[in-house]
Fold this sequence. Notes:
By secondary structure, the protein is mainly α.
Amino acid sequence: YARIFTRHSTHTEDDMKEVAVSLMAWLCTHVGLPGTVDVPEYKIVSHKELKDIYCGDGRRCPGSLKAVYVHREKMMYLPHGFNFKEKEDQSTLVHEFVHHLQSVFNSPVPPCFNEAEAYYIEDHWRKENGLATKTDKAGFRLWLGNCFMDIIGGVK
């Protein structure tokens, strides 16, 4: 595991290591991997930098971002104020770790399915940890349907 801190970081290496190893072990077990995978490097950045990283590729930029995983860098970007000990922020880590596994194992599916998988697994973790899920079944099905339509050219 590796990390990169900026001068504004209030996190300790032990915070990340303890939480990250535990979450990655949970994730690997729940997706059926025989062992664990190293956690990605991460960098704490401002909210503006986070948006610039995510939206810089011409993507539609959401109102709020919790974190960004950049596949080509195998790097996770987290905003100032991210707290590795808080369940909501741990939920975000689970989501970004799914993207890391997709990158490590060269997921062959379109990005929208990768995102759907990340939300599905994150919601499973959230249920196990007493948090409300982020997606409902109807909304999730609609999202997957739109993703499929994008792939076959039915939605622009």
